[in-house]
Specification:
The chain is α/β, with parallel strands linked by helices. It contains eleven helices and twelve strands. It folds into two domains: 181 residues, 3-Layer(aba) Sandwich (Isopropylmalate Dehydrogenase); 121 residues, 3-Layer(aba) Sandwich (Isopropylmalate Dehydrogenase), CATH 3.40.718.10. The protein is 38% helix and 18% strand. Strands 3-4-2-1-5-12-11-6-7-10-8-9 form a twelve-stranded mixed beta sheet, sandwiched between helices. Helix 1 crosses helix 11, helix 3 crosses helix 5 and helix 7 packs across helix 8. The model has no long low-confidence stretch (mean pLDDT 94).
Amino acid sequence: MTKPIIGITIGDPASIGPEIVIKALQHPDLYKICNPLVIGDKKLITAVLKTVDSKLNINIIENPIEGNYEIGSLDLIDLHNVTTLQTGIVTPEYGQACYEYIVKGFELAISKQIQALATAPINKNALRAANINHIGHTEILASLCKVDDPLTMFEVRNMRVFFLSRHVSLRQACNMVTKERVLDYIIRCSAVLKRIGIVEGTMAVAGLNPHSGEQGLLGDEEITGVEPAIKAAQAQGYNVVGPIGADSVFFQTLQGKYNSVLSLYHDQGHIATKTLDFNRTVAITNDLPFLRTSVDHGTAFDIAGKNLADETNMLEAIKLAAKYHF
């Protein structure tokens, strides 16, 4: 079977992104499952190779089919968009650079020159400084792909977590817990599970309030939004239950009781997955024309350029892109 080409963007040039990408490519087992292609800047990559004392040889290519894709070779599409080399800072240049890496990754993926995209972290303030009117990767890719509301799924060990809302305030997230939205997400999340080969088991919907509201004593969102959506989904044949208290549903899923959880807001699911295994929690963006995976951590400006970053999360993101690509 032909190994997929996985495009890897290096993230914000001032971050640990370039470092963890380089370190991930030093793992020989990665090349057994995919052909990793880096999208970045040669000047920056050369500097970081020295910082981490890596012996990787840079192989500049124009098209993905030209890559060597063998251990010891860093196949790079060079965008020539970094003029200064500094770490741990927010600059318009770096915000623009990381945006251009994402756009190039999109272009390669949408044209099927690569089979999936794995992304290193970017900085929201750097994007803003560069006048990029999107808050993160998901929003950028959604705009490029003309997709209104892509699904985010986290995977860590045998636990999969979807998110009803992402980068909105907690107050706004609570307002988004409606029957219509929860039902739509149950249907769409079920389709994602089927596409990645998860056809057995039951999806659980987490509760929003403590103890799922205690029949309205601690909040009525479960009664007005969650329960009606679950009943409607069950009537349509979907294998879903809930609401299950958020203090137990993630543990139960880890134990195998459920095949996935629909988390009702950003931090609810992030805390559960990252506490379980921060370095191996991988974000998957679904409902795009291609698969995108990402590390679940930020730019870590405080340790950038110091050869202290752990590449485990980046490595897992690339591996998961190879596993689920389509």
